[in-house]
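Hello,

Following up on my earlier ticket. Below are the two sequence lines again, exactly as submitted.
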Amino acid sequence: MKKPPVPLLQNGVRADGRSPDQMREIEISVGVVTNADGSAVVSYGNTTAVAAVYGPREMHPRHLSLPDRGVMRVRYHMAPFSTKDERKSPTPSRREIEISKVLREALEPAVMLEQYPRSRIDVFVEILQADGSTRVASLTAASLALADAGVYMRDVVIGVSVGIVNGTVVLDLTGLEDQYGEGDLPVGYMPNLQKFTLLQLDGAWSREKFLEALSLAVNGVNYVYQKARDALRNRYMSIAEEIYGR
Amino acid sequence: MASISPYGKRFISYLRREQIKRLITADARLDGRSLDQLRTCEVRLGVVKTADGSSEVRLGKTQVVAGVKVGLGQPFPDAPDEGVLVVNAEVLPHASPYTEVGPPDEFAIELARVVDRGVRHSSYVDFKKLAVEGGKVYLLWVDLYVINDDGNLIDAANLAAVTALKNTTLPTVVKSENGVKLDRENRVPMAIDVESVPIAVSVGKIGNVLFLDPQFEEELSLDGRIVLTYSRDQIVAVQKTLGAFSRTELEAALELSKRGREQILHCLSKVF
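Thanks for your patience. The regenerated structure is below:
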């Protein structure tokens, strides 16, 4: 493993000045793609994901529809200009195909697909710029776009990442920390139902570090969840103002 | 390319699913196993003579063949002194009535990538020892072939990959007109740290009951599933592949997976 260009953690301060349990600056706006039934832009620092939801709409091709429930289609994709070094090929990589799958499986427990037989709900997520934690920013954006579309849901799903840097568990990894850290644990969590729907891990983790990281992730989720609620509320307050006037 | 809910392709009747659910909630299973019991496991090394390392794993009726081919090539720029591991998985059309001919789908890709992460983040293979002269390194191509899918492909494929790597010998590197090439007639052993072998253990959930090694029909009835990969006492890979888990359930899954790991290690002790 090569050494990082800057120290990742010194005296409890990370390379970008954060403490280990601190999220980056978070920006969330809902209803940004006017043509979509629901949409959201979520930024964790320099990571930006834009999600658009179309549906529920008719399933095409029809033989893939289900008689007792709806079908969800999720696409995670990175823009060619979203990476720091070379241009990323726009062809979906094996990584993007895997992430599309885990995002779908992270959203499905929250969405009441049984309410939409024979239909399909499409969720498209595009990473505009990437600086670590892209799949969890995508998950937050996707679940807010679904909520914005008025799809029946049991809860929203909020994503945050945790990792190990110099032996310390840290919240919300940057690209640098992901590349040079000792471990990476993206988490998706339903804050009201208190259940994990996305859980991946690599690196080398003891059982204690793993459980500590889960607690830190839940704290991060609750923090992002408040911002997400505000963003959803703002969106509907502005619609209410439009209709009823001030 | 997007990921679509796959339930239309693979399904099980409501009656059968209810039966499996009733059994599981009474701590019983279709094949008479207990909840923390794996199916019989069998490993044969060196089944493919043309490969540089190979093995065949049977976990119950699930059957996976792994073949390793060694190549020479350029290292990744961020690890110039380390060998390269490439894991690919193919679920053959032989494997089940639900499998189609074609390039690896998202299940096969996920299967390969979960196995890859386990090997990569354990110190089972010493990648530093796979660098050769002239800026070149050994490339390890691990191809996982699923011959028969009777459920729990990840545990079986991981076992096939690690045993095939154990069986692998490296062709020696000899000088040629333009640099170096491989001599497959002369071989040297590959450095493997048997103690760090990565073991993937899948934990299935039906209702709120957790159990090990779901077979095919149980797999189609699952409400949740998580794969935990251990190397020594460290967790080196996790993949939740279905449903939602509470923290209590995750802690129970950690405990249960340890018992699965012991059984797989016991199975490995016959060939290691």
